[in-house]
């Protein structure tokens, strides 16, 4: 069982930055892959980024690539999502996710956090 707790969301103006954190309660953090999803109002939840056990990262596409960076600190059981040059369309609830499988963490993770709201004003 893995419990995930996000923090760091909030209200920011367009062009600003935020760093989301996700603390995982598990003894085997280094053996699981971590990811971030988001869900905007009226839209389905979508994959944002993931970080593998071996250090590989993946991003959803051009909408966040170059602006968002995912990283992890195995010593702190924490994964981060650095977000820069934020746009109003980045407004969403951001969810941390975890799964032992690299493919699954990007499509249908087993474990989810409760989410943290990010609001970008224009």
Question: What order do the helices and strands come in, and which of them pair?
Answer:
Layout: E1 3-7, E2 10-13, E3 18-25, E4 33-39, E5 46-51, E6 57-59, E7 68-73, E8 78-83, E9 92-99, H1 102-107, E10 111-112, E11 116-121
Parallel strand pairs: 2-11
Antiparallel strand pairs: 1-3, 3-8, 4-5, 4-9, 5-6, 7-8, 9-10, 9-11
Characteristics of this structure?
globular; seven-stranded mixed beta sheet; mainly beta; four-stranded antiparallel beta sheet; 122 residues
Q: What's the mean pLDDT score?
A: 94
Strand content: over 45%
Globally, the shape reads globular
The gyration radius over C-alpha positions equals 13 Å
The strand count comes to 11
Show unreliable segments: none
Overall structural class, as computed from helix and strand content, comes to mainly beta
Distance between the termini: 40 Å
Strand-and-helix sequence, N→C? EEEEEEEEEHEE
Q: Strand count, sense and closure of the main sheet?
A: 7 strands, mixed
Estimate the helix proportion, in percent.
under 10%
List the total number of helices. 1
Describe the structure.
- The protein is globular, with a radius of gyration of 13 Å.
- It has 1 helix and 11 strands; from the N terminus they run βββββββββαββ.
- It has 122 residues and is mainly beta.
- The longest helix has 6 residues, at 102-107.
- The strands form 2 sheets. Strands 2, 4, 5, 6, 9, 10 and 11 form a 7-stranded mixed sheet that branches.
- A hairpin with a 5-residue loop joins β5 (46-51) and β6.
- The mean pLDDT is 94.
């Amino acid at each position: 069982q893995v419990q995930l707790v996000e923090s760091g969301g909030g209200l920011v103006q367009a062009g600003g930055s935020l760093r989301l954190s996700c603390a995982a309660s598990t003894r085997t953090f280094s053996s699981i892959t971590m990811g971030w999803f988001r869900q905007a109002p009226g839209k389905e939840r979508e994959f944002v980024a993931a970080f593998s056990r071996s250090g590989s990262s993946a991003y959803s596409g051009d909408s966040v690539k170059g602006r968002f960076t995912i990283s992890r600190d195995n010593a702190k059981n924490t994964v981060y999502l650095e977000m820069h040059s934020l746009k109003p369309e980045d407004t969403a609830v951001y969810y941390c996710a975890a799964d032992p499988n690299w493919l699954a963490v990007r499509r249908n993770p087993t474990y989810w956090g409760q989410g943290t709201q990010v609001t970008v004003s224009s």
